[in-house]
Amino acid sequence: MSSQDKSAYDDQLLIRYLLGELPAEETERLDELSIADEEVAARLSGVENDLVDAYVRAEVKGEDLRRFESFYLSSANRREKVQFARALLTRERGTATAPAMVIRTGVAPPQEPDKKASPRRGLQWPWPALQLGFASAAAVLLIMAGYLLVDNMRLHEQMRESRNRQSEFDRRERDLRSELDQQRSAYAQAQEELQHFRDSQSNLELTTAPLLLLPPSRSVSAVPAISLRPGTDLVVLLLTLESDDFPAYRVVLKDPATRQIRWRSATVTATSAGEKKVVSVSFRVGLLKPQNYIAELTGISAQGSSELIAGYPFRAVLK
Amino acid sequence: MKRDWAPTQDSFRHFLHWLDEGVDSGGERYLEMRRRLVRYFDRKNCLSPDELADETLSRVAQKLEDKGSITELSPAHYCYVVARFVFLEYLRGNQHFQSSFEEAAHPVLQVSLSGSPGTDPESPDQEKLHECLEHCLCQLSDKDRGLILEYYQGEQRARTERRSELAARLGLSMNALSIRACRIRDKLEVCVRKCCREA
Questions:
Q1: What is the pTM of this model?
Q2: Any domain includes B184
Q3: For position B174, which CATH number holds?
């Protein structure tokens, strides 16, 4: 994935996806990539962990906080993630305060009485050393008092935040119940969609529209077209290779007018089709509109480096 | 589709090989795909994401056995297509759908409150959670334990800088470091959940 493509899936977009804020089409696209694209799946996991950590550290604010609590926390698994993150944080804070405890107990260790010292020896203590000792002890006490004061203020602040949150949660419960009603009506719509799906599908027998694309040549020739009829589920592109030079390939579908990426494949290998070698990829028909597209083929070497091989133009026609 | 279908050893091996796409991962690709599917169903607010992920993988394995090979889609993409079907079928179960929202409405509060800064860290559940976390951290190698604790430590601003330093020290790209940290964290979370449930 190029850095330009990466920016299309920046962290903010993934956060909006995790918080259920994206439109349905974009959500579905990320649903697909979260399973079919290794890199997006990995980035999504990283962003989710950081989001959960940010929540338990009270770094999530405003609308994101509201969405987190109303949407993200609506699943038992995700609530467990939050509890896990909280345990990690508690451990981190406990570890972080440990050195302070060592200082407090370690600065003035109890002196082992000198059994050989005479009873009068106390009178012979060097006064400057004694004063220095008292001064050190006083300094330590001051530091401890300061630390406790700051800690106390922090706890008060946390209690106040806790009370605020509790009232916020009460409000959220009411909102959630109203959201529940809305979801129930959305469910009725989902049922309709499902019925439509069942009518057009019989189990996993997908209706496909294939298109064989020859290697691009310099001669002027008509752009091949693919006709998409109603009821078609998948478009299958067969990109013919001039030579099979790479162990793996990737295909990116672009809108030539805007150069915007509409879809990208996972890593695929070339297969034989008669005497020719082809790279076969497929995607949902819903991605195409009646216009021209370019399927860009990239070869991936055994070392993982990628090289653009060719762009295969074609036109989509809806029937 | 036969509902009571169970893979034979051979068909399961064939399935793993197909998922691996020619590079033997020792079952890692299967586990990774299962993790992605569980998260997908979880994001869709399904009640039993684990069961639905297993159902998806079972159907894909069965289809592969029936057809002998699946070449029209990459394995990961094919799993997604099947997962979507499984999800739509799940939606058909009215009870599931409604109860998932009923279930969602209450524990949100319960857990959110338990997650507020005022949580009693010495409640039995919290205590158990911390014990399990310590136990599971001890199960990790020294290297993995050090990495995860350092990677996820600190406030947002300081964290980015620390992660860059850590990546440089380990000779990894930020991306590779993030993937490694996520995998260790996944492993740790699974261990902690298991430990808490067994308690």
A1: 0.55
A2: yes
A3: 1.10.10
- In the prediction, which pLDDT does A242 show? 86
Tell me how close the Cα of B159 comes to any Cα of chain A, in angstroms. Answer: 10
Specify whether B76 is located in the same domain as B126.
Answer: no
Give the pLDDT score at B25. Answer: 84
Cβ contact, residue pair B109, A165, below 8 Å = no
Q: List CB contacts (< 8 A) between B115 and chain A.
A: 56, 82-83, 86
Do B127 and B194 belong together in one domain? yes
Phi and psi dihedrals of A264, rounded to 5?
Answer: -140, 145
In the block, tokens 């996972």 appear at: A266
Task: Give a yes or no: residue B105 inside a domain.
Answer: no
Residue A298: CB atoms within 10 Å = 19
The parent domain of residue B150 ranges over 120-198
Report ipTM for this prediction: 0.84
- Whether residue B16 lies inside any domain: the answer is yes
Q: Which of B16-25, B56-65, B107-116, B148-157 has the lowest mean pLDDT?
A: B107-116
Task: Please count the structural domains in chain B.
Answer: 2
Alpha helix segments (H runs only) across chain B: 9-20, 28-43, 49-67, 75-92, 94-114, 124-139, 142-151, 156-170, 174-198
pLDDT of residue A41 exceeding 50: yes
